[in-house]
Amino acid sequence: xxxxxxPLPGVVVIEPKVFGDNRGFFMExxxxxxxxxxxxxxxxxxxxxxxxxxxxxxxxxxxxxHPQAKxxxxxxxxxxxVAVDIRQGSPTFGHWHxxxxxxxxxxxxxxxxxxxxxxxxxxxxxxxxxxxTDYYHPExxxxxxxxxxxxxxxxxxxxxxxxxxxxxxxxxxxxxxxxLPRDID
Length: 185
What we know:
The two termini are 27 Å apart. The strands form 3 sheets. Strands 1-2-10-7-12-5 form a 6-stranded antiparallel β-sheet, with no helix packed on it. A 5-stranded antiparallel β-sheet has the order 9-8-11-6-13, with no helix packed on it. Strands 3-4 form a two-stranded antiparallel ribbon. By secondary structure, it is mainly beta. It contains 2 helices and 13 strands. The protein has helices at residues 32-37, 164-167; strands at 2-5, 12-15, 18-21, 24-27, 46-53, 57-63, 70-76, 78-85, 96-102, 108-111, 115-121, 125-132, 141-143.
């Protein structure tokens, strides 16, 4: 297993060992002790699977009172996945990191609590799975505009398909400090 550090504290890309031959492949997608030894000290309590069409962009979302760390990966298809540091007081506040996840590279992206998360679909369809450290609370979900110029994410698509909710999100600098997490380090 290979762990790739990113410029954002705690955000890592994980390349699990994949054992394959002409019959297919096997890989371990999570093992608590092994992941803890690599610095992923998360107690996951909910697994999710979503299916999205090509050109869809979901995000940038986070929960404030029920923050979720996430371990995300793609079963089939391809996405460009992004984490944005939104922790007040963090030296990397407003910085982002993106990674290509697909059904062939088997990469996982670990995003700690305190980060906004989003992805855009680059294939015709994607099956996207993620483990979360807290339950989904729709009343607690907050979001940031996907194309906030101050953040400057280099999305690989120009005119994404957005939900009505995501169309109405605001840039990071218009979100009140009461609705942003604090850097706990």
